[in-house]
Model the fold of this input.
Amino acid sequence: MSANTPSPATQAVLLLCSPLRAGRNKDVQPLSIGEFNELEKQLQRVGAGLEQLLETDAAALLKKISPAVDGAKIESLLGRGFMLSMAVETWQSAGVWVTSRHEMDYPERLHRLKQNAPPLIYGCGEKKLLSRGGLAIVGSRDVDTLGEEFTKRAAASAAREEMQVVSGGARGVDQFAMLAALEAGGTVVGVLADSLLRSATSGKAREAIQDGRLTLVSAFDPEAGFNVGNAMQRNKQIYALADFGLVVSSGYNEGGTWSGAIEQLEKLRLTPIFVRAGDDVPEGNRQLLRRDALPFPSEPWPGSLREVFEAAPQKNLQPIETADLFALHEKPPEYRSSQREEALISPRK
Done:
């Protein structure tokens, strides 16, 4: 088995949770994350592992955990071995890897999402960047000129201070932040909600990936198109992979930037959330500040961005399993349902 070939456990997760678009089989829907969590729970109850579902006596195992799980559906999903082999071949030819939350190389920071940790993570680029944390810069697609310039300055400043930038790869703030950080010589993690395969093979993205400065990841099938629900789920993953969050521009009570920030402030509490403040910011920014988000200091920033973040209150936040948040940063070491989410860098036509 080559280094890029999924392990038996991950193969089982792929068969159960991936649509395997390479096969274009729409006869059976993959397990939802809730269904998959229940399957794991039942397998643990009888002392079995996911890889045992690939063995010849899997039917007998499924009988032990029925009716808590839909054995017939699982058997149907497990029968897609040929489609899985075709999909893996397609991914490998594009340099896309896949891991599951049962593997040692699964991003540890995503485990902070607990039952919402995605069963699968697809990616292209250095996996080690996923453990470095950094600054999550997020915001609206239709950001104004002031917000665009602020985004570029903040991302470039973070890169110069060897703080990694984490964002979502969508048009607007996400792309401005990621490209500015790369241009300043920094490292970037892009958490995509769709089209990983196409984004990973685009010209400029490929160069940064090969240089080890850009890693693109997605919890969704590498060929998946834009889906509002996936984009909302992706927000959790952006914050989970970062140490701090910076909201540049947000609508009020609508859109993915707003809902993702509110979820962090009121429920998940994975990172301190900073918000661009001032007279010319959108109403959503002002409302987030009223909900205990932290105002991002006005420019020129005092000292360094690192000092600003280190002084951030850590109260009521989930801990990150490291003694020094910044040790990992050292060198080597608004959605619209009618719109399709754009990748970090548009691929060549």
